[in-house]
Amino acid sequence: MKIRVTDRDGTSHAVEGQAGLKLMEVLRELDYGVEALCGGMCSCATCHVYVDTDWIDGLAPPEDDEDDLLDSLEGRHTNSRLSCQILLGEEHDGLTVTIAPEE
Fold first, then answer.
1. Where are the domains of the chain?
2. C-alpha span between 95 and 1 (Å, rounded)
């Protein structure tokens, strides 16, 4: 599956995703990707992304712990998500995200 990722410099990339992986696992392997310091434990918000508005409603809503972490970010938008909380499936082919600025 293909995922469209816009990095912090505004450059768009097409990357290969895999069903069954968390989006964070794909993004942290990229030179321009996310840090994911906590390794996907939903405790640091260093995997913060903005999901394209065409895709945001197709994702499961954030759980309370993710929502709490997102609330602590200055750069939170209505389409903010932690990529460690997005489990990829075949239905996510074409998913478009932008890596949020570091905080």
1. 2-99
2. 9
Q: How far apart are CA 93 and CA 55, in angstroms?
A: 11
CA distances from 61 to 13, 34, 56, 79, 81 (A): 25, 21, 9, 10, 9
Instruction: Map residue 83 onto helix, strand or coil.
Output: helix
- Helix or strand (DSSP H, E) at 69: helix 64-71
Report the distance separating Cα 39 and Cα 101, nearest Å.
19
Q: Nearest to residue 85, comparing CAs of 103, 53, 63, 100?
A: 63
Nearest partner of 95 among 11, 27, 36, judged by Cα: 27
What's the start-to-end Cα distance of the chain, in Å?
30
Per-residue pLDDT band for 94 (boundaries 50, 70, 90) equals very high
Q: Architecture of 2-99 per CATH?
A: Roll (3.10)
Predicted pLDDT at 74: 96
